[in-house]
Design a protein that fits this description.
Largest sheet: 5 strands, mixed, barrel
Number of domains: 1
Order of helices and strands: HEEHEEEEE
Strand content: 35-45%
Oligomer: single chain
CATH topology: OB fold (Dihydrolipoamide Acetyltransferase, E2P)
Number of helices: 2
Radius of gyration: 19 Å
CATH architecture: Beta Barrel
Shape: globular
Number of strands: 7
């Protein structure tokens, strides 16, 4: 039985598209890590603090819808959350536990409750950047929705 050439082409193209999509989702954290810091005096704190300086590749993602793979870091118990922290790494390795930098976490505002899972999940939402408010994280995903488990 011969498989038509067009069918082989379509199957190859589909596989390639799937691989590229997964790569983009997994590499967003890598892109978000392309930052530097500058020392700047903060009037409220009364001393110099490190302020993030976003690279052009990070700035290009601002206000864009992205899909990102990561781990839910619950802020109020292990239940369904609309607001939580999302990490590139599992809880035991996340920024708050000393295993990574602040560029590996983001705040999330979901449109509906997202059930806690210790496994990696995919979220889709609009990425916001923060280099002004030191009481907030550098990254925020708004209008977020769970897209895959």
């Amino acid at each position: 039985m011969r498989i038509p050439l067009i069918l082989i082409f379509l199957m190859s193209f589909s596989a390639l598209s799937f691989a590229q999509t997964n790569g983009k989702e997994d590499n967003i954290w890598k892109t978000l890590s392309k930052i530097s810091y500058k020392k700047e005096y903060d009037e409220l704190m009364g001393f110099k603090i490190d302020k993030p300086v976003f690279s052009e590749t990070v700035k290009a993602l601002e206000n864009k819808e992205v899909t990102i793979k990561g781990y839910i870091i619950p802020v109020e118990g292990y239940k369904s959350h609309k607001e939580f922290i999302f990490s590139a790494f599992p809880y035991s390795m996340c920024f708050f536990c000393g295993g990574a930098g602040p560029e590996t976490v983001m705040e999330v505002e979901a449109t509906e409750g997202v059930k806690y899972s210790a496994d990696a999940v995919y979220l889709k939402g609009v990425l916001k950047l923060n280099d002004k408010d030191i009481n907030r994280l550098m990254y925020k995903l708004v209008n977020a929705k769970l897209v895959k488990n």
